[in-house]
């Protein structure tokens, strides 16, 4: 397994650690930053999430720079992203920071695209993420990070940045999903 794929696997391994910090009260108290209060565990969980999300850029950059792009990486990388973001979104619903209907649409899109990727893989095609999918991923990372941090930075300016970004994410999620299915419609139409 090459280094980019090891980085991708490490992102998957970080997910249960992130979940533990977000859902278990270790009794470490609250922290006040920029006039907003959040549990210390949530701050640590948010940092783990952000670090794991940044590894998405690192593994992709390293794989392209050193010509280490593999079919395994092209499959694992988006899967790791989907697992990380889905875990975070489900936690945000549990904590009351994200509406369930938005999370259901986002996760449903991820399952649908993963299913299409499996159909394509069965036909010998491994499709790398397109630019629109990458934009979708980064809007998800920004929205989820802001929500995990309880919108701290923007709360002092009374700007619902995290909520705005969640809706931007929803738009890119639907758009990129439609684009992915439209670009690969022949597979669905030709399937027997």
From TrEMBL:
It comes from the Bacteria. It catalyses: a CDP-1,2-diacyl-sn-glycerol + sn-glycerol 3-phosphate = a 1,2-diacyl-sn-glycero-3-phospho-(1'-sn-glycero-3'-phosphate) + CMP + H(+). Its main location: membrane. The chain crosses the membrane at residues 12-31, 43-62, 83-107, 164-183. One of its GO terms (cellular component) is plasma membrane. Coiled coil: none annotated. It is found in: Cell membrane. It is a multi-pass membrane protein. Pathway: Phospholipid metabolism; phosphatidylglycerol biosynthesis; phosphatidylglycerol from CDP-diacylglycerol: step 1/2; Lipid metabolism. One of its GO terms (biological process) is phosphatidylglycerol biosynthetic process. Its EC number is 2.7.8.5. InterPro entries: CDP-alcohol_PTase-I, CDP-OH_P_trans, CDP-OH_PTrfase_TM_dom, CDP_ALCOHOL_P_TRANSF_CS, Phosphatidylglycerol_P_synth. GO terms for molecular function: CDP-diacylglycerol-glycerol-3-phosphate 3-phosphatidyltransferase activity. The keyword Transcription does not apply. The keyword Nucleotide-binding does not apply. Keywords: Cell membrane, Lipid biosynthesis, Lipid metabolism, Membrane, Phospholipid biosynthesis, Phospholipid metabolism, Transferase, Transmembrane, Transmembrane helix. Belongs to the CDP-alcohol phosphatidyltransferase class-I family. This protein catalyzes the committed step to the synthesis of the acidic phospholipids. PANTHER family: CDP-DIACYLGLYCEROL--GLYCEROL-3-PHOSPHATE 3-PHOSPHATIDYLTRANSFERASE 1, CHLOROPLASTIC (PTHR14269:SF62), CDP-DIACYLGLYCEROL--GLYCEROL-3-PHOSPHATE 3-PHOSPHATIDYLTRANSFERASE-RELATED (PTHR14269). This is CDP-diacylglycerol--glycerol-3-phosphate 3-phosphatidyltransferase. It comes from Paenisporosarcina antarctica. The lineage of its organism: Bacteria, Bacillati, Bacillota, Bacilli, Bacillales.
């Amino acid at each position: 397994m090459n280094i980019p794929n090891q980085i991708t696997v490490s992102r998957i391994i970080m997910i249960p650690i992130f979940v533990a910090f977000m859902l278990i009260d270790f009794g470490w108290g609250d922290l006040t930053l920029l006039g907003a209060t959040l549990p210390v565990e949530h701050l640590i969980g948010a940092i783990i999430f952000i670090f794991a999300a940044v590894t998405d850029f690192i593994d992709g950059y390293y794989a392209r720079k050193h010509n280490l792009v593999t079919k395994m990486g092209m499959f694992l990388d988006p899967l790791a992203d989907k697992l990380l973001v889905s875990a975070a979104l489900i936690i945000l619903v549990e904590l009351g920071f994200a509406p369930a209907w938005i999370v259901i649409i986002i996760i449903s899109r991820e399952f649908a695209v993963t299913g299409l990727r499996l159909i394509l893989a069965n036909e010998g095609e491994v499709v790398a993420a397109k630019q629109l999918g990458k934009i979708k991923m980064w809007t998800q990372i920004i929205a989820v990070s802001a929500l995990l941090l309880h919108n701290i930075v923007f709360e002092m300016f009374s700007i619902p940045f995290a909520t705005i970004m969640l809706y931007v994410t929803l738009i890119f999620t639907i758009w990129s999903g439609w684009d992915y299915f439209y670009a690969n419609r022949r597979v669905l139409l030709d399937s027997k």
